[in-house]
Amino acid sequence: MSLASPVLDNPVLENLPYVEAVLNYMVPMAERAIYYTYEPSPGVLRDNVTYDPLTLPIRNARSIAQDLSIDHQGFALFEQQSTVRNFYDEDEIRRVYYPEVEQFLKDLTGATKVLVFDHNVRSAPRAAQGKDNAHEPVKRVHNDFTAKSGYTRARLSLAAHGVDDADTLLRHRFAVVNVWRSIAGPVQESPLAVCDAQTIAPADLVVRDLLYRDRVGETYSITYNPAHRWFYFPHVQTNEVLLIKCFDSAEDGRARFAAHTAFDDPTSPPNAPPRESIELRTLIFYPDAG
Fold it and tell me: What is the pTM of this model?
């Protein structure tokens, strides 16, 4: 698959099969959007955003996968084999999967350096039981980083990993890319939808403070725009990874922010096993010509 691809034309898109499903968009608000990562004081809303559930077409991108790129649409699907046996084993993830993904992305992008700095595993049943530090799939339209927090998180992550030349690295182009995969068979329930970054206007991106006990981060909530074009890959396999561009320091027309969300697929069997997945957050540092 190419890392740079042309704009998808309408005749191609109109012929793609699709499902219609609810996507939860942010309702525009006057006050600052806030989300607490922990239980706040009594009487304080953990999430002060209101969501508008809109039923929209989500196109099956399997047949155009070779035409998608993280630098244009902001997402792309690739095959990537892993030797990890247990994706709920924290040590094995860091010891085996982190290096695998770092090498995969370096080979794919030609990056001078790749650093995995974070990961989440998602399983609704395990999250409900408080097991394996698992989280539920996120069913609201969002992007993980903002134009500001992309830099902030990169600097913090480089410092945490003892990288001495952080200032030099951050003077060059870099990106934050999520690497998302199924860890328990093909995804049948709560698949992931991704929005073509070229259809997202700057005004659609609303900064939301992400409050931790020791710091404040930022993410983007997304307001509805009829220009948005949504895609998904049905039945993502355990040997596939979906790359999602969450930030790019380049402001030259490349994709910077690819909104995404889990959704309830109306074609999922009623007895479909709950989705189990892992996403790695990575820093990709490009050569000067990148």
Answer: 0.94
